[in-house]
């Protein structure tokens, strides 16, 4: 299908969509999520196959990823998010008084046409972006990454079976046709870009300044564990298992994947013990599906870390490189004192560093400007001050260990509203004179 | 035999091996193992590194089993067999990807200088003894810590001519005007020696002015260095196409040199086809290793390049690089550089973070 025709069809579908209520759209999307949560759903099976065979996910990770995604995209989640972001979801249907006593009536419009640049093989932000576009009753042109296309297509197929009207408002562009995507972006009221920082920069620079662009670049997440949470061996094992989930659940591909665990000294168990427990958890998890993808580049990175950690031992530093056997599957890089390169991460590589006092701020601070989520395990007396410090550093989400990969739909990704940024408002100052 | 006499004998034998410039696997193995034994004994940091790897000289009989120090080690450890006060020369890495620069210490440069000559002659000047060399690198007097400047200085002294050519970078600025003027006046074949970056800068300078030079037939180009750590990158074939267009030097006359501060010897392109295969001199052993297991890769499979350089006489002969290569018989192809795990989704752009200087 040519681009002009695709745009025409999507806009015609959008015209029909504008006559529907936002609640009915949320209900349809929510019903679709319920189907996807059924592990025998044929579309879900196809998506799992794609994620494992083409994108290299371990099977348990693929299943968990979809459970997490669709578990957060139920009808009530959509409505709740719209309430939080817009005050009242029905402002998308017509003028509404959002706050009692306010004489204004408010109306929100989504962009007529949205072009989504979806990067990577992490399906969650991609599918959410499409769902958000539909909630705003916009036509959606979708450009997937050439290398990692597929899952969004399956989602749209399943949507077509359930609600053709919604599916018609979405058009998948040819992932290899950059020119068409650029042309589509030029015609759009909004362009969303998820990808590498340089991709976001590049696309921004090529679009006209009047085009509204919302970019989501690269970020990482961290875990901070205080000594009070490491009082017993059982507690250490439990926390290690939770932390390992934050590593393997999205195969460390997303901004909510944990790269660094800062562990306080002086608890019942030392940080090195935690690192070993974490290694054991990763090893057990990896053995469930040892065929999941590890790239040659990832293996080379692990070899490089191994060499560097060996050098650091020669220098007399308190470090240890814990690895899978044979090497290349996972790596836990322990250091007794936070210092020096490399910032390990990606493909099941995690750095565990011990700290004392306020040392964790130095370790986490290295990622300042690139922080997304933080899993915080602290006693009640320290939780708030630590959360404050994390927020100050730019963390957009503070949660508990093991929950990093399960953000609610209402989460302020990259520290911004999920959807409110996409809409245009009209205030009607109605007077009764 | 006392260690000192054995060391002197090893010096003579390595220099003789380099001078002979002839492949002899058994002899290389013998010299490499003897050198390893000495470096293990005299180099404390390296000995501890070997202990970490669980290898000592008594248990190996093949040079490929000598523990290789990651090139990164030159940033963190003082890898020498002599005391600090005997250091005569220090070459430092460019520091493009990290704040801390690697250091290669020398107490003498006789091995380094010996290793430069024969490969350069064989791969770049096989048809003549001398020729005008136009060098797009700062001279060694200005960049005492640069191994590349040192090498260019040696090459210039041995293979250049006094009446023409010279160094065309001063205070980190390319003297493009002067270079273009001098090249326009040449009537005999000349050689340009440049880093990929300085060459690109010069070619873009020419292109910006629409200035096409037609250098005499037989002129040639040697480039080195790649674009590591730079935002601006151009593929090698594109670079050679530009050189042909703006200098008149065809790709068949372009040679890429491969060297690094951590090594004393260099490799050169052995062919001029689309896929360029590099050849190492007989005293520079190399292995393409599987990054996960460390085992040598069979021909045709990518891995990390590991070098065993007899000319690294007073530091460590075995150096594990971050460069990715593929072996084919006696030669290897340089494929790229391992910079970190591939990043997909919205995870962090590792290199950008390092460049931003947030992580030392």
Written description of the protein model:
The complex is a heterodimer of chains A (433) and B (360). Chain A contains 15 helices and 14 strands. Helices cover 45% and strands 18% of the residues of chain A. Chain A is globular. Chain A starts with a helix and ends with a strand. In chain A, helix 2 packs across helix 5 and helix 11 packs across helix 12. Chain A has 433 residues and is α/β, with parallel strands linked by helices. In chain A, the strands form 3 sheets. Chain A has a 7-stranded mixed sheet, with helices on both faces. In chain A, strands 4-3-2-5-6 form a 5-stranded parallel sheet, with helices on both faces. Chain B is α/β, with parallel strands linked by helices and 360 residues long. In chain B, 33% of the residues lie in helices and 20% in strands. Chain B is built from 10 helices and 16 strands. In chain B, the strands form 3 sheets. In chain B, strands 1, 4, 5, 8, 9, 10, 11, 12, 13, 14, 15 and 16 form a 12-stranded mixed sheet that branches. In chain B, strands 2-3 form a two-stranded antiparallel ribbon. Chain B has a two-stranded antiparallel ribbon with strand order 6-7. In chain B, helix 1 runs antiparallel to helix 2 and helix 2 packs across helix 3. The radius of gyration of chain B is 21 Å and the shape is globular. The N and C termini of chain B lie far apart (46 Å). The C terminus of chain B is likely disordered. Chains A and B meet through helix 13 of A and helix 3, strand 1, strand 15 and helix 10 of B.
Task: Provide the fold topology.
The complex is a heterodimer of chains A (433) and B (360).
Chain A: H1 3-17, H2 22-37, H3 42-54, H4 59-71, H5 75-86, E1 104-109, E2 113-118, H6 123-135, E3 139-144, H7 151-162, H8 164-168, E4 170-172, H9 178-187, E5 190-194, H10 197-206, E6 212-216, E7 220-225, H11 233-248, E8 258-264, H12 271-288, H13 296-314, E9 319-323, E10 331-335, E11 349-355, H14 359-365, E12 371-377, H15 380-393, E13 397-399, E14 424-429
Parallel strand pairs in A: 2-3, 2-5, 3-4, 5-6, 7-8, 7-12, 8-11, 10-11, 12-13
Antiparallel strand pairs in A: 1-14, 9-10
Chain B: H1 3-20, H2 25-42, H3 44-53, E1 69-70, H4 73-76, E2 89-92, E3 103-106, H5 110-124, E4 133-136, H6 147-159, E5 165-167, E6 169-170, E7 173-174, H7 176-185, E8 191-195, H8 196-209, E9 220-224, H9 236-247, E10 254-258, E11 267-269, E12 278-279, E13 284-289, E14 302-309, E15 318-328, E16 331-337, H10 350-355
Parallel strand pairs in B: 1-15, 4-5, 4-8, 8-9, 9-10
Antiparallel strand pairs in B: 2-3, 6-7, 10-11, 11-12, 12-16, 13-14, 14-15, 15-16
Helix pairs in contact in B: 1-2, 1-5, 2-3, 5-6, 8-9
